[in-house]
Amino acid sequence: xxxxxxxxxxxxxxxxxxxxxxxxxxxxxxxxxxxxxxxxxxxxxxxxxxxxxxxxxxxxxxxxxxxxxxxxxxxxxxxxxxxxxxxxxxxx
Length: 92
Prior knowledge:
By secondary structure, the protein is α+β, with helices and mostly antiparallel strands. 21% of the residues lie in helices and 25% in strands. The chain contains four helices and six strands, in the order αββααββαββ. Strands 1-6 form a two-stranded antiparallel ribbon. Strands 2-5 form a two-stranded antiparallel ribbon. The longest helix has 5 residues, at 24-28. It is globular and about 40 Å long. InterPro entries: 4Fe4S_Fe-S-bd (IPR017896), Fd_FixX (IPR012206).
């Protein structure tokens, strides 16, 4: 199974309160923006034209890859979603 097929077996209960909060000002000074290449859900988008990072938590797989690869500590908050919210994997 590849990463794109996981979404066929995944559902989300979206919380209005994001479980990940990013300080986008820190992202401007990042030299590699590893989160844009390593996030399997493609939640991070860098706009070269606007010089801004956009993060959308709605499709986050909660894998923690972004937290591990961010060498600038750009997160003001990284936690798992509140109980009852977030991703639900259905592998049956």
